[in-house]
Amino acid sequence: MRKIRKGDEVVVLTGKDKGKRGTVLRVLESALVVEGVNRVRKSVKPNPMKGTTGGFQDKDMPINVSNVALFNSLTGKGDRVGIKTLEDGRQVRFFKSNGEVVDA
To answer: Which of 61, 68, 71, 83 has its CA 20 to 30 A from that of 48?
Structure first.
């Protein structure tokens, strides 16, 4: 079970985008693509066969999982996440600071 999943709201802890919040768009092996974080400008060649024009395009690049934390709406900050097993055998994620379950 992954501690951070697609669709989660995360806070960047380190790097040039420290403090930014965004939702996870894709989960890679040990990295995440977060909306609006680690954005770069890539040059794109024109391709008349596909109908695309050349120029610059903004693109979100992956950021390491260790550089983000799950956003806790109660505290308003990023929080560490743990995994515990409930009585019925389900595994759920919970915030380490207050023990609140993330997955209902």
So the answer is: 61
